[in-house]
Amino acid sequence: MPEPYPRTVVVLAAGEGKRMKSSLPKVLHPLLGRTLVGHVLNAAAPLDAVRTLVVVGHGADQVRTHLAGIAPGATAVHQAEQHGTGHAVRIAMEAAPEATGTVVVLNGDVPLLRPETVGELVAAHESEGAAATVLAAEVPDPAGLGRIVRDATGRLEQIVEQRDATPAQLGIREINAGIYAFDAIRLRDVLGKLSTDNDQGEEYLTDVFELLVSAGEPVGVHLAADHTETLGCNDRVELAALRRLLRDRVNERWMRAGVSLLDPGTTWIDVTVALDRDAVVDQNTQLRGGSVVGSGAVVGPDVTLVDTVVGPGATVLRSHAVGAEVGPGASVGPYAYLRPDARLAERAKVGTFVEVKNTEIGAGSKVPHLTYVGDATIGEHSNIGAASVFVNYDGVQKHRTVIGSHARTGADNMFVAPVEVGDGAYTAAGSVIIENVPAGAMGVARARQRNIEGWVLKRRAGTAAAQAAERAQGASAVVPSASEGEEIHGTAESVGGTHRAGDTATE
Ligand code: UD1
Ligand code: CA
Predict the structure, then answer these.
(1) Is 125 a catalytic residue?
(2) 438 shares its domain with 480
(3) Of 31, 88, 195, 452, which sees the most CB atoms within 10 A?
(4) How many domains does the chain have?
(5) pTM for the whole thing?
(6) Ligand 1: residues whose CB is within 6 Å?
């Protein structure tokens, strides 16, 4: 059995959006995780439309490419010249001559509209058997918007644009949101009768209402409960205002779902992000794209997560992460940078001034300080000494470093990839590891130290350093002869049986 009201969605997105002053078409501007047109398509998604038509014009190629990514089922309809909203819908209807049932028209620049509100508009329209129903709102400031003009009995008479309105009509605060439901057949009928006899010389979609009313067709007005849903976006000041409204809406939803937001005013969560109960988001934090924050995790203050998954009980403090995965109970920051495919297993730690890219860090392993880890695999419960660099790039290609489990690498190591450090192996501080270190071995790759006794007294005589040295040596009164000063007192046993502080002491 065919649907009684098969639905066609038409999104108007051909306008230039002059006042945005942008090389990006207006409907492609981003707003907390979606473009403007992405939000509008999302609001229409529950309608289960048999077809979705997006009227494109300005920046058509860019808009088409975007649509292919976010709404592959939608069809772009080209409006080469923008002769008004009525003209745009006429072109869309010509592209779908078979359309019957309900046509839902949405302005591409009204992104805060809730799916529920669109659903209510369409339900009201269909249950009334109306020829057309407009979504209206009572707004504090109707400037620039089309006004809903009702007759003495309260019935819709016409929709009049600000620039065509009489002084009395300008006082009306009930406005046209630019969202409509139409009966396809009757819409097609009147679209052919639109004139361009108005201040802009355009075909106004809004004139459809007056035409239907004078033909005796039933038309309706559906009033939005929350007028902020109907706000349009014409410039970047309005876009910023919409962003704040949407932020507050999203934040409220998460708080009611059991997430603690310590400072909602500085917390920006994309509509595409998911948070579990008892997650805590501290101030000045942005959660973007497909990011997920698990139960009991603490994120912030001062954190940006883009497409990053934070497991339950993990903490991320003053850090930036893109495309990363932070395992349960793991800890990141302060001041860490996780780049794509940085993956921390359970209880792993990435500490301060540490950058990690395309690397797996095993359960309980730590990279605590001042380190770059790129293209590596680190096993479980290993510790990477401070100030180390995983030297992954030979100038042409990237190579991997593999560190085993329970390894302890010394401070200030270079791991020149490809290279491996085995399970339970150690490396000495200051080593440049270019050869594999077998399991359980101590890898030492640094020059031996030599002390030239008395060098300062001889070569920097009279300086404060020399005087300090003299004072220090006063008690033992060791004054080297000139020849002794050049002797080398290096020791061959500096790394040996005893565990030396500094080799691996940066846990
Ligand atoms: C329109 C309504 C107005 C309403 C307001 C709500 C008309 C005549 N007026 O005014 O009553 O209060 O929306 O936001 O409809 N577009 C096209 N092709 C065109 C012209 C416009 O695709 O030829 C698209 C624009 O890209 C935009 C939408 O239609 O997404 C609305 O057009 P816009 O020029 O912004 O209309 P408003 O003046 O805001
Ligand atoms: Ca507009």
Answers:
(1) no
(2) no
(3) 88
(4) 3
(5) 0.91
(6) 12-15, 55, 79, 82-85, 87-88, 107-110, 145-146, 159, 161, 175-178, 204-206, 232
